Amino acid sequence: MTDCKKIADLIFKDVEKTAGYYENKYPPRGLKEGARVTRFAPSPTGYLHFGGLYAAFASKLTAQSTGGVFMLRIEDTDKKREIDDGVSAIIKGLSAFGVTADEGVTGSDSETGSYGPYVQSRRRDIYRAFARKLMEEGKAYPCFCTPQELEEIRAQQENEDIKGYYGRYARCRCLSDSEIEEKIKNCEPFTVRLRSTGDINRKITFDDMIKGKIEMSENVNDVVILKTDGIPTYHFAHAVDDHLMRTTHVIRGDEWIASVPLHLELFRALGFKPVKYAHIAPIMKEENGGKRKLSKRKDPEANVSYYTEKGYPEESVKEYMLTILNSNFEDWRRANKTADISAFPFNLKKMSLSGALFDMVKLNDVSKNVISLMTAQKVYSLLSEWAKEYDRELYSLLSQNPEKAQAILNIDRDNPKPRKDIACWSEIRDYVSYFYGELYSPDYSLPENINRADAYEILSKYKNIYKAEDTKEEWFAKIKELCSDCGFTPNVKEYKQNPGSFKGHVGDVSTVIRVAVTSRTNTPDLYYIMRILGDEALRRIERAAESYKG
Ligand code: GLU
Questions:
Q1: Coil, strand, or helix at residue 110?
Q2: For ligand 1, atom 5, which residue shows the shortest CA distance?
Q3: Given pLDDT bands bounded at 50, 70 and 90, which one contains residue 1?
Q4: Nearest CA to 371 among 429, 316, 319, 427?
Q5: Tens digits of residue pLDDT in 396-448
Q6: In a mutational test of the pocket of ligand 1, which residue from 37, 54, 231, 238 has the highest number of ligand atoms less than 8 Å from its CB?
Q7: Considering the domain 452-548, what is its CATH architecture?
Q8: DSSP secondary structure string, 419-473?
Q9: 305 CB contacts (<8 Å, ≥6 apart)?
Q10: Which residues line ligand 1 (CB under 6 A)?
Q11: What is the SS3 string spanning 292-344?
């Protein structure tokens, strides 16, 4: 008969505190009935993937909409795969889009909340206390198999349906106390394994909050819970952390579904109430008529920093994520045009089973709409913040004359049908370029239906009547007058009825002026553009006229 207590004492000599101590230290949260406690638990092994931001946002919305708590926990038990600045990249990516946690890690060396530490590498003692408890109860045992021995086992299992360390393959499951003591005395490296009580012929069922009822075979593997360095595996850390942090809902990628039987077994063995699971399918992208996963390797937009660099506002990205998170969001938005998204009743059950489809065109449309509803002051402040980091030249032009910049950004904005033509801040350099000599290079090309001689005539006459201080009505009256003077008609309808009698209509005359002033055929309201440019507008008209001469 094995003396489990004796073996546990031998193996966990370093463990001072008991599992009971930690249970008391992290009591149930006492939140109101129905409040959900969720977490985002990334590993700092690479940049923050859009799918990560998406899952974190789903977790945050779940907590927020129920008066619960959303935590950020860093799962850094795999030191080999960790990258420098992995934690700050995660925090930066989340906070750029407002997916900030109520509790947990706040910086590479800081955290907030009373259920921490929230970095797994700082929780070693906690895991060891619970592994010790399992071992004392005979639910875990040390395994001394070497990598070569494990390789042998794998080779023997080629024809087995179930692979892994179980049944007759679990060589260390039945070591005697004296064998264990001997091996430990000889300093043989060992892992700690769960002594599984699962039966392959028995099924477990669980209710996934997204995917519904799922039935799977029980786990039978004696999985490793502590590695040879005493660090826990993901599975064990998940059970211990989510229990002690009093997580109620684990929202994570569906690559973990296969591990649920093991996780439920761990919760049971540890005496914990199981969490509820919600497994998210990966975000998909359309390609060549088919669908594939949004890929870290192939798609620059898989990296959250793509959106920061391009300058998509937080509101746009959140609004877009909600359109793919919950199928009823767009209807809600139509009915609640100006409501804050925190008022949306987010529901895990309305998430896609097969994987939300990522669509850049849709993101741009959503963002154009969001930006069109912002005041010029807000656009100016968000744009400046972005340009300060990503476009210094633009930043200095904007900040040299904030009134001018805001006047530019206000064109066609302050009205019931604002222009929807800016999707992200990096588009603004081009959008405002003709307002700044430093960014502007004139191009007097005309549309095919307007000839240079007519353009010359229009501009030469216009320069004599244009006055920077004219009201919009006066300005437009002068353009109409100019039409008649140059053989064009101020009346588009008239032109359409009788095209042979005119060189063109008022639209063509405005185009000539627009090209002269901005080098474009399509711009926001030309009157306001010219007002902002002031005398420069007149100089440009003169220069353009000159270029069409002769
Ligand atoms: N660290 C795990 C991962 O990045 C977390 C999975 C989970 O949310 O439990 O996949």
A1: strand
A2: 41
A3: low
A4: 316
A5: 999 999 999 999 999 999 888 999 999 999 999 999 999 999 999 999 999 99
A6: 238
A7: Orthogonal Bundle (1.10)
A8: ----SSGGGHHHHHGGG-GGG--------TTS-HHHHHHHHHHHHHH--TT--HH
A9: 47, 48, 89, 92, 93
A10: 41-43, 75, 238, 250, 252-253
A11: EECCCCCCHHHECHHHHHHCCCHHHHHHHHHHHHCCCHHHHHHHCCCCCHHHC
How many whole angstroms separate alpha carbon 373 and alpha carbon 248?
37
Q: What is the pLDDT of residues 321-370, one digit of tens each?
A: 999 999 999 999 999 988 999 999 999 999 999 899 999 999 999 999 99
**For tokens 């809600």, what's the residue?**
332
Ligand 1 midpoint to CA 163 (Å): 23
Ligand 1 atom 3: residue of nearest CA: 42
Whole-angstrom distance, CA of residue 459 vs CA of residue 512: 8
Distance 256 CA to ligand 1 centre (A): 8
In 3D space, the residue among 505, 507, 468, 464 whose CA is nearest the CA of residue 486 turns out to be 505
Q: How far is the CA of 41 from the centre of ligand 1 (A)?
A: 5
Quick one: average pLDDT of 252-274? 98
> Which structure tokens are listed for 49?
């993937």
**4-16+124-280: CATH topology:** Rossmann fold (3.40.50)
- Is the N-terminal amide bond of 117 cis, ω within 30° of 0? yes
Distance, CA of 160 to CA of 221 (rounded, Å): 13
Residue nearest to atom 10 of ligand 1 (CA): 42
Taking the C-alpha atoms of residue 267 and residue 240, their distance in angstroms, rounded to an integer, is 8
Q: Which two tokens stand for residue 424?
A: 């992200």
Closest to 447 in 3D by CA, of 458, 439, 455: 455
Ligand 1 center to residue 59 CA distance, Å? 13
Ligand 1 atom closest to residue 52's alpha carbon, by position in its atom list: 4
Q: Domain ranges in the chain?
A: 4-16+124-280, 308-372, 376-435, 452-548
CA distance 11 to 190: 10
Structure tokens at 497: 């009825």
The pLDDT of residue 415: 86
Q: E strands within 57-202?
A: 69-72, 103-107, 110-112, 140-143, 191-194
Which one, of 57, 44, 42, lies nearest residue 307 by Cα?
A: 57
Identity of residue 291: K
The tokens describing 208, both together, are 């996934």
Q: Ligand 1 centre and the CA of 149: distance in Å? A: 29
Q: Confidence band (pLDDT; 50, 70, 90) for 74?
A: very high
Contact 466, 544 (CB under 8 A): no
